[in-house]
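note to self — DONT lose this again. spent like an hour looking for the file last time. sequence + predicted structure for the chain T wanted, 299 res
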Amino acid sequence: MKRATVYASQPAPAHKPPGAEAAPTPPPRQGARWKAVFFRHERWAMLFLGLAIGGAMWWASERWGAPRQVLTQKDIDAAVLHTLATQDLPSRTAKAAGLVWPSVVRVRAFGTDPQNPKAGEKELGVGTGVVIVEDGTILTNFHVISTAQRLEVTFFDGMESAAFVISTMPENDLAVIKPQKIPDDLQPATMGSSSNLQPGDEVVAVGFPFGIGPSVSAGVVSGLNRSFQPEGKMPMKGLIQFDAAANPGNSGGPLVNLSGEVVGIVTAILNPTSARTFIGIGFAATMESAGSAVGIPPF
């Protein structure tokens, strides 16, 4: 019987003649040894090489590079003068108005005419107000809202809302009203103190003269601690006198300093005639008086 062929899993070693020995393996060359070490630690070798090159470049730059330029006050002054000469920058009064602008509102008073009640509701007048608290609390003049049966305010973004009276201070011609709804990004004005004012200080009035606006006018403080009695109304004391243009509709609007802080509430204009137009003298209640109207300590 013939046997099946059995295959070895590994080839049989070659037959060596008697007395023959394997030739010794030659040792690796020096270059090959360093090459093996490099590839074994390739990442660290590249990092070290990069640091070495960067350090050499930095040393060369410090040793032979151009010296660094040091700015002097003369260089800074020249740059400022160049900017002023080549750029159109906003005026100080424009910046002051811009700071209070988002807080100014138009106040409209509606009601029936006592002389003709059958005519129905109509607009009795337009004034101005300024937001003084984040919840929408508005400061305005008492005479703006005194005869109103319904109030409506318009915010800087055009949003309109009905409003109601919270408190009044007729002796200073001040009133506090609050709208039923307010814009999401409503910004209250920053209050300032009239104690820091001096005659000649620049001020800005923002409001809705004759319902147009918001409008901006600028002038200076003409005097302090003035007294004034509007025709048929209670006398007022401790007023700020100013010459920024103001007309009917400015009433209740903010009088601000160049820092954009509200230092007064425009309340009256002096006019010896019945024209009700501005002749150069306006009056504003101080923010100290306004603080009492709101029921909190002076700002």
